[in-house]
Design brief:
three-stranded antiparallel sheet; 20% strand; rod-shaped
Length: 86
């Protein structure tokens, strides 16, 4: 198993937990995820978790951009409406 995930170990891999409760795994690219057994810690699983994290980051970035756009539109609309209220 260690040879299979060597590149992730080199990049920084943290595993906390025990065989009874499972393990919390962390890498910079995947962030935190849970496995019941260390046998689940494969290249495929790590790649899946990295992809999931990238998707989350993309969604968060899209949300932030949309909020900024909404605020800009709202500010522009207020500039138009304010003179009409006078």
């Amino acid at each position: 198993m260690l040879k299979e995930i060597e590149k992730y170990i080199e990049q920084g891999l943290t595993i906390k937990g025990n065989p009874q409760t499972g393990y919390n795994v962390f890498t910079v690219d995947s962030q935190h995820f849970y496995v019941k057994s260390l046998d689940e810690l494969t290249t495929e699983r790590l790649e899946k978790e990295i992809e999931r994290q990238q998707c989350c980051e993309t969604n968060e970035l899209t949300l932030l951009v949309n909020r900024e756009i909404y605020q800009e539109i709202k500010n522009e609309m207020n500039k138009i409406v304010s003179p009409l209220e006078l």
